[in-house]
Amino acid sequence: MASTTEQAAATTNEAAQSAAPRRSVTLRLWRGDADGGGLVDYEVPALEGEVVLDVVHRIQATSAPDLAVRWNCKAGKCGSCSAEINGKPRLMCMTRMSTLPQDEPITVSPMRTFPVIRDLVTDVSYNFTVAAAIPAFSPGPREADGTYRMAQVDIDRSQEFRKCIECFLCQNVCHVIRDHEDNKQYYAGPRFLARLAELEMHPLDNLDRRRYISEQMGIGLCNITKCCTEVCPESIHITDNAIIPLKERVVDARYDPVAWLGRKLLGRKPPKSATAVAAVAPLWRDRGAEHAGAGSKEA
Amino acid sequence: MPELERHDVDVLIIGAGGSGLRAAIDASATGARTAVVCKSLLGKAHTVMAEGGVAAALGNVWPEDNWEVHFRDTMRGGKLLNNWRMAQLHAQEAPERVLELEEWGALFDRTPDGRILQRDFGGHRYARLAHVGDRTGLELLRTVQQRSVSLGVEVFMECKIIRLLHGPSGEVNGAVGLWRESGRFVVFSAKAVVLASGGIGKTWKFTSNSWESTGDGHALALWAGADLIDMEFVQFHPTGMVWPPSARGILVTEGVRGDGGVLRNSEGRRFMFDYIPDFYAKETADSEAEADQWYGNKRDFRRPPELLPRDEVARSINAEVKAGRGSPHGGVFLDIASRRSAEDIKRRLPSMYHQFKELADVDITSEPMEVGPTCHYVMGGVRVDGDTTASTVAGLYACGEVAGGMHGANRLGGNSLSDLLVFGQRAGRYAAEHALGIKGTTIVDEAQVDAVCNEALGCFSAEGENPYALHQDLQETMQALVGIIRTESELIQAKERLEGFAERAAAVSVEGHRQFNPGWHLALDLQSMLAVANCTTGSAIERKESRGGHTRDDYRESDPDHFGKVNMVSRLHDGVVEVSESPLPTMPEELQALFEEGH
Ligand code: SF4
Ligand code: SF4
Ligand code: FES
Questions:
Q1: B interface mutation test: which of A17, A72, A119 has the most B CBs within 10 A?
Q2: pLDDT tens digit string along B343-355?
Q3: What is the pLDDT of residues B60-96, one digit of tens each?
Q4: Measuring CA to CA, how many Å separate A6 from each of A19, A157, B360?
Q5: How wide is the angle at C-alpha B382 spanned by C-alphas B492 and B38, nearest 5°?
Q6: Could you give the C-alpha distances from A112 to A82, A180, A183, A222, in angstroms and in order?
């Protein structure tokens, strides 16, 4: 019996924890608001099987009732609880305490790319602005029997992007906007490039957003570092499956008459002008006209 | 009080889950000025947690399926206590509501011939649930979210509605809200208000629900003078996670069982065979051999008992654990590992695989899951007109989980997402029609506004306890005394405790300032939870029978002659919840016939 216990303790952290239930952990939380703030240590007893969000909640229920944090599902499905844990962008509800080094304080700070509102809560409205600027899905008519037909293989890719829980961790980590606040005006960010890829690859969609993607959504600013893909909790291959193919399509649209013709022959996406597309994206309208070609550098 | 932020709209929708956004789409399509208010960010609503699918008799997998069969399944699942008109409209309109989602960009899994694939679920006679792996709720929410955004619907995020306002003849004409971010109040004047606020799960300790599910809409309706019905019927989903403790209550989709997963006790027995009620005996397999053949040949074999309606399965698990045949952490085993290939499991149930791997360090492709009942859904809610979703108060509408009647005493899996769509659409349409029929500007009563704001600020100067402690006591009480199995003495004890909680709630104090202060928000949400707890407990005392999501240890049988013919109505009288019986609407003969043909 003793040897089994020892073995278990040696292999997993939890077992070690349950063997010594009175251990404590220290969470070093960023507290403050738009005017500034700093890290504050909270020491709480370590409990078995907890995730970072549980510990944050226990701190809230005991020593810091006004600690601001967003969460909803506690199951990695809603994308509310994004933060930087020991400097890594992650979901608090899906980060088990046992996977973090427990002998030193665990730092939890708000996502850096978005302005802080309070404590761990940031102003992510930039993302909602971009979302509203995306030209809507535009399908053709239904079949005679009132349904649409699509083969599973033709929707696999778009379904991958629709797994997105909008945690905005990829947006947070993308250096184009993380290090250059100014770029937010010109750049949709990985989440929304994936959304655009989803629409472009959707078998029923009839709108051609390619010039819009290059001229208004700033796809050229992405230099394929893949940092976004690495942090995606849904393991969406943002760079490889969305951005790179999208870049190729955009290039095709602008410079490759053969590819252009090929697409037309396939008859899927009648091209529309960027202005026509921009007309269905009203919220993006106030971007300066001088930035309309932001994507052209890349090509 | 400083000058308040104000907005004037035609239709104010409270809640941005599936039903709220679906309502917004139709309300704004009629030309009504529409605003949606939600407590979280847009796209985070509890709808994302719905996993298995949306029930609609599309007939893609089983051409025999049609609305009449769906209607019958729904009513039988609800133990015939459903509002028949709602169940009928729901079954008739669900297919078009699903097809419409495709027009807005939704991508459901496909059949080999390119149509929407449908899966089996408990209580549904045919494979009927349109789905996307096990993340159907996310797909549905994202679709209506993207549609609403493209229509320019105005959304007020992270704003909690504290009270509704009413005009001179009692009609609802606005609401007072609180911006969570700034802690400032906001006043809405509106010609119609749609409640789409979801459920009440946070009143119980073990729940699949998020922090938002505090019964706000139920309470707002009650305080506005509306009737609630059937509040005793609370669904405990049979399969929630039981370990680790922090993950307790998180949902494990019924899709696991639909796709071949079975329940076993500590002796390895598929115990559901021991709990097949007479009501379902004809259509349920009575041996493992038959049950297993059903997955491959649904025409000639009967369904496995693991797919009985949720109330039956939850009670059975409860009984096994009580009898000492539970799993190490107080649940039972849900085993799909030994029944399907690892590849199949990962493809069909990707988020379950992920969830158990990340949260419990369990690989569901090689080990069984430990599961047990978790508070999941409230069948009861605002009493509405089946066609228009109008409540008993003028100008107030309700759809989705906050509305009562549709699911009777027990909801079938998959019928929630379809409910959201069907009645969300109707609520949006009829609320907008009502609003557009009212001429002139809406004037709210400033005295009511002041009173609401002052009361909400009271906890900053109070000297009582912190709201978290009270919330915990409330949850413990409801879990222990108003849980799956109930009995008169415990219910009465719960009622007494609730009186004590009300006093404590009145004195709750919060620290810090008004900006994004979760303690304050909880103090306000507690008011809703207490109102809901009173309705559920009160109705549970009065319904002296067992039926669906209400099981009485002291009245184990259902009583078709009396309680099978009544709804329990909760209504506020001089500030106190009163419960009374009200006759169930009678089903027309042609629908009744569907139950008599020996189906
Ligand atoms: S790959 Fe592109 S979008 Fe992703 S992080 Fe790098 S620059 Fe940003
Ligand atoms: S793509 Fe991934 S990282 Fe980005 S928002 Fe969606 S889920 Fe989050
Ligand atoms: S709380 Fe929903 S993803 Fe963490």
A1: A72
A2: 999 988 888 998 8
A3: 999 999 999 999 999 999 999 999 999 999 999 999 9
A4: 10, 46, 21
A5: 110
A6: 11, 12, 15, 19
Longest dimension (CA), chain B: 72
* pLDDT above 90 coverage of chain B, percent: 85
Cα–Cα distance, B312 to B335 (Å, whole number): 19
Interface pTM, i.e. ipTM: 0.90
Tokens 């019964």 label which residue? B215
- Domain ranges across chain B: 5-235+376-446, 239-373, 447-577
Residue-level pLDDT at B124? 94
Contact status, residue A32 vs residue A50, Cβ threshold 8 Å = no
A80 CB near a chain B CB, below 8 Å?
yes
Candidate ranges A8-12, A255-259, B217-221; pick with highest mean pLDDT: B217-221
> Could you say which DSSP state residue B132 is in?
S
**pTM for the whole thing?**
0.90
CB B192 within 8 A of CB B11: yes
CATH superfamily ID and name for B5-235+376-446: FAD/NAD(P)-binding domain (3.50.50.60)
Strands of B379-531 (E only): list them.
381-382, 396-398, 485-486
Q: In this structure, which topology does domain B447-577 adopt according to CATH?
A: Methane Monooxygenase Hydroxylase; Chain G, domain 1 (1.20.58)
The residue whose CB lies within 8 Å of the most ligand 3 atoms, and thus the one to mutate among A57, A60, A69, A77, is: A77
Q: What is the pLDDT of residue B2?
A: 64
CA dist B277 → B214, B264, B282, B308, B313 (Å): 33, 18, 10, 9, 11
- For residue B475, the chain A residues in CB contact (below 8 A) are none
DSSP state of B440: S
User: In B112-197, where does DSSP find H-type helix?
Assistant: 136-150
CATH number for the segment(s) B239-373: 3.90.700.10
Rounded to a whole number of angstroms, the distance between the first and last alpha carbons of chain B is: 64
